[in-house]
Amino acid sequence: MLSLGMHNYKYSFVTISRFFFCFLSFIFCTRHNATAQEFGGNSPRLKWGQINTDTARIIFPLGMEEQAQRVANTVHHLNKMPHNSIGDKFKKVNIALQNQTVVSNGYVAVAPFRSELFTTPPQSGYLVSSNWLDILSIHEYRHVQQFTNAKRGLTNFGYVLFGEMGWNYFASLSIPNWFMEGDAVVTETALTNQGRGRLPSFYNGFKSLSFEDRYYSYAKIRNGSLKDFVPDRYAAGFLMVNYGREKYGNDFWKDILNEAGSYNSLFYPFSRSLYKKSELPTYDFYIMSLRYYNEKWDSLMFKPETTKIEKYNNVDKNDTYTIYNYPYFDKYGDVIVYKSSYKNIGAFYTINQYGTEIPITKQGRVLDDYFSFKNGRLLWAEIGQDERWGWNVNSNIIMYDMNTYQRTKITRSTKYFSPDITVDGSKIIAAHASVDQEYSLHVLSVEGAIIKEIPNPANLYFAYPKWSYDEKYIISIARDKLGRNSLVKVDPESGEVENLTKFSDNQLGPPWLGKDFIYFSSTYSGTDNIFAVELGNDTIYQVTDVKVGAYQPAFSEEQSKLYYTDYSYLGSDIITMETERSKWKPIEINEPKDLPEFQFVSSDSEGGDITEDLPNKEYEITKYSQSSKLINVHSWNLYLEDPNYEWAFRSNNILNTLSLDLGARYNRNDNNFTYFFNGIYAQLYPVLSFGISTSPRAGLKYIDDGTNVIDTVKVTWLENKIKAGLLLPFDFSGGRYTNKFNIYSNYSYTAIRFKKTEQVETTDFNLSSVETGVSFVNRRKKARQSIFAKNSQYIKTEYNTSIDDNTAKQLFFDSEWTFPGFSINHNIVFQASFQSEDAENNYFFSDNFVYSRGYNRPVYDYIYKIGSNYHFTIAYPDWGFWGLIYFYRMRSNLFFDYSRTYFNNSSTNTESIQLYNSTGVELIFDTKVLNLYDLSFGVRYSFLLNDDPVPNQNQVHTYEFFIPLMRF
User: Fold this and answer.
1) Fewer CB within 10 A of the terminal residue: the chain, N end or C end?
2) What is each CA distance from 717 to 194, 750, 759, in whole angstroms?
3) What is the radius of gyration, based on Cα positions, of the chain?
4) Torsion-angle region of residue 449: left (phi > 0), alpha (psi -120 to 50) or beta?
């Protein structure tokens, strides 16, 4: 925790300058914020190849040659297309394909400049449509084009000053993230027949707000909220970017991007350029975008209800965003659902006929909240993490038996999705994806053994498979290589696939197998609705006709009622309706691109779908060594980790196995600078580190004048150090907890050279020392409105000692423990710390102890502190000021610190014990600065119950600015 002292009710210049320095450090501290890349995330056993051209270097694990060729052809085609909508600047980019993780994602980072594509497709087509790798390549390469075309003028000057971190910072500061993501979504929609712009669910957030006449400020749309549901930057950006193209032409945004990157206007360059082009301030442009789409949605807003419906869940949401998903029926006729909210993490509940919600069990970390249920057994897939390699993320089947209350992990280190169990509980069907993008359905025993891998010669990507009640066939969603979807019937013995619906660009949701019909949600009508198809009859019937979106059908044969989830601005609810077959409408399947609501000027201007006409050039493939270009200096910037502030040159190779830093560090506790060169090599199982440093230091030497009167004399010295170390990182994450455990040991050889003084005799010496430690973090899954994760722990123990004849020892222990408070989303946090270091040692190690609040640093041989805190939210302001700062939460902390020091004077053989106790209150603001960075800061009042260790202070009341560093 960074404490910037402001004592005796006075705002000193030093205090303000420190706070300003801290703020600048935070702003330029993009060393980790600019990257989502795992450090040393892949095993050295993984072998890599590359396609290296003048446009891109595609780096991929061997076995993915076909996918790498497809990405290379896509990127080259995009680079050669006309760039009227973005600009003609070009820079070669490294693109790494990551196939070890089940996470479906991708990103572009600027430091170092690269893109990473995670190749496993998502189960849900409602997340993104089209061929996964095609849409991912188009979307992420658009980000490459955005950054390269923004690198001009002042943004280019930022690159000169700070390297690629400066490029990233200046581009991100001038160009809003809604534009970056919205423009990329427009591009993926314009260049395919699918894309999120043609998914009705993509508009649900804004549609539901519009239908309730709820409109949020531009600042709230830009920065989000912890109180209300706010559509994300992808949806908001798409609406605004696409409106700009529809209104002003396809090249409307190109000049705005270029001028914003150049900072033609020093302040608010994007907004000023937007105003120059449209004569609308950004807020008004946002309002006009909403009006444009509201006019399209007006016909939906006043749509009459044609069937009587009722809401099944009746617990008041209290204006808290809450979702109820995936209804099932138990043997008593009650409904089993998944429920989560901004206040609580996701869990399974039984809702009985009286509306009472009874919790069953909580769900762990998942890719989506899908689950299946039969005869008291719940099945879902949870994320599993390799103990060492961060990119090796698995998906394991979990079963909870409501009859025995037993939770069982069926599979380990596997890549299974959307499991379903037979009625008798003997077999499981699950979708499987291999690292080489080979897809299949696996039949498993309840012990996790593979009974059968169902043949899949067409390599269809299966999603949400369901057993028939007689176990003779499986109903599933299937996606072909073009990204088209179909509802299929699969023979588990032969693998024969029968299409129940034709393949189309429409999206399909999880099916429900009734006695006569199969129910599923789809985009067929231009709005997501529930549809039904009868086995042996290819007629598709539309069952619901909703305003926003209907999903996850469940049909009760006993009641002849359909249950489904209906979306609103407060989340989703379980809806029931009578099934009047006479009102079902037979439909013809129309492709989304042919529906009038999904036809855009950008598609016509960009030329439309490119995926079926991509070139099929065979690029040369060569070996790519993980040691390629180990030295890759990309940035020179500030980095803050209290009590240390550093400026350094940064180097990371593309696969991020070697990190190098060269720079200077200031330690606030020791009040000294250190000049260093450090390196970390993470390709092996033990992470290797090395470094050299030099530091001018100062301290107090205790002397006895012969009359038993102790005095202190300041001494200064130069400290030159060489160090080498080992780190053993372990990741035991699973279920609801993220568990990380590290063991490390470092050897240091330090040369101490004193500045001579007549006041005290000093002798130069050399010190050989060893630093050994362990750290442990156990972090529970956290609800959105929780300040800290509940029932979580942080523990660190470190021992530094000389291994020669010098006297130098330091033992440091720090811990933090969180518990639920007396009200939901309140937290009780306990801190326990200990440090021992003999005050008469002839060498002192760096001091990282966090002292009792309000006090200066005391003198001691050892010290311990127990801190107690009660954190609670005061308000959610959701208020911004000119794009400089946005306040999304105001909270407070009541604290009491108990601290005791022990100091033994060996000359007089006397022991001194001092207490440093304080109590007080902190007012903390959680904000977003410059619409970019989350920053929490606060004001603290401390009431000191004991004397301050600094003579002549005699202060009782202290006030401080501080920045809390949150571990959970």
Assistant:
1) N
2) 67, 12, 15
3) 31
4) beta
